[in-house]
From TrEMBL:
Keyword DNA-binding: no
GO biological process: endosome organization; receptor recycling; retrograde transport, endosome to Golgi
Domain PH, first and last residues per copy: 18-122
Bilayer-spanning residue ranges: none
One Pfam family in the UniProt entry: PH
Annotated protein name in UniProt: PH domain-containing protein
UniProt cross-references to Gene3D superfamilies, sorted A to Z: Pleckstrin-homology domain (PH domain)/Phosphotyrosine-binding domain (PTB)
Residues in the signal sequence: none
Keywords: Coiled coil
Length: 317
């Protein structure tokens, strides 16, 4: 129905109000090919990445829009050029032939961005499938929607596992390096202090990533819930359309019956009219024959009178 379709449009146009992921990224300038660090936020409900000069900047410096047909992938090539950014670059290609080259501070962060963008892309695709189901086989396409939501959640969970594993590996490597420096006896207390500070920083990074992952998971769950509502609305609209189609068929059958009855009555009326015309023609023929017969008798009567006059004249003579 129209109300169900409007409900779906509102759900698709409304933003979630939360960012699935945010943080600093290097963005390559489209004109000067220069790398600038910007603070990015992702809104998965609309497929928009917005960037500012820094986290506290209130004014947007630009947006990157992507959808279900966009290409989102980690790049095997270090576009940035600096050695420490190997495996940290990723690429976004949009259907309108816009290309964006981005670089994260670490491979784990790059993977988090790519995984979240892909999950958001899958959810956008699911929304599109839900709307398209209104104009086609609703039941079949709603199954596809559910599968896409499941795939999006799976991608998000796998990304969380990868990031946690990456951070644990990084911490272990740091611990191993600092322990070997402490064992050498050169500046032991300083090395221990450095190790503690490093662990503290890594722990803060891990907690920050965990918070961002939880925020992203909540956002994806909200999207999945909204998508379920969209699917329910689409199913209700499909049922309403089916009921309307049934009523239309019944009305069409009634109209066909009335047309057939009218056609039958028209045929009967035409037959009656034809019979009346034939009777009228027969009466007219009889009238014409009677007129001819009357004229003939009038002539005979005139001849008889003339004969009588002649006979009367002869008798008088």
């Amino acid at each position: 129905s129209k109300s169900s379709l409007e409900k779906i449009k509102k759900q698709l146009s409304a933003g979630s109000g939360n960012s699935a992921l945010q943080g600093p990224l290097f963005k390559r300038s489209e004109t000067l090919r220069k790398w600038n660090q910007r603070w990015f936020t992702l809104d998965p409900a609309t497929g928009k990445m917005e960037y500012r000069l820094d986290r506290g900047d209130l004014s947007s410096r630009g947006q990157i829009y992507f959808d279900a047909d966009s290409t989102i992938t980690l790049s095997p090539i270090n576009f940035h050029g600096a050695k420490k950014y190997d495996g940290c670059c990723f690429y976004i290609g949009t259907p309108n032939k816009k290309e964006y080259y981005l670089c994260a501070e670490s491979q784990a962060v790059a993977r988090a961005w790519v995984a979240t963008l892909r999950a958001s892309s899958l959810v956008l695709k699911a929304h599109k499938e839900a709307v398209n189901s209104l104009s086609g086989n609703g039941a079949a396409k709603l199954g596809t929607v559910a599968a896409v939501v499941t795939a999006a959640n799976t991608v998000a969970k796998e990304a969380a596992k990868d990031i946690a594993s990456e951070m644990q590996t990084s911490i272990k490597a740091t611990l191993s390096g600092k322990s070997s420096q402490t064992a050498s006896g050169d500046g032991g207390m300083d090395n221990v202090s450095i190790m503690k500070e490093t662990l503290r920083v890594k722990d803060e990074e891990l907690h920050q990533l965990s918070r961002e992952l939880r925020t992203r998971d909540v956002t994806i769950k909200e999207l999945a819930d909204r998508l379920s509502e969209t699917a329910d609305a689409a199913e209700a609209a499909a049922r309403a359309a089916h009921a309307m189609d049934k009523e239309r068929k019944a009305a069409r059958a009634e109209a066909d019956r009335a047309l057939k009855e009218l056609d039958d009555r028209t045929k009967v009326a035409r037959l009656q009219l034809k019979a009346g015309e034939e009777r009228y023609a027969a009466v007219m023929r009889e009238r014409d024959e009677a007129l001819v017969e009357a004229q003939r008798w009038q002539k005979e009567l005139a001849k008889a009178r003339e004969q009588m006059l002649l006979m009367e004249a002869a008798r008088i003579r």
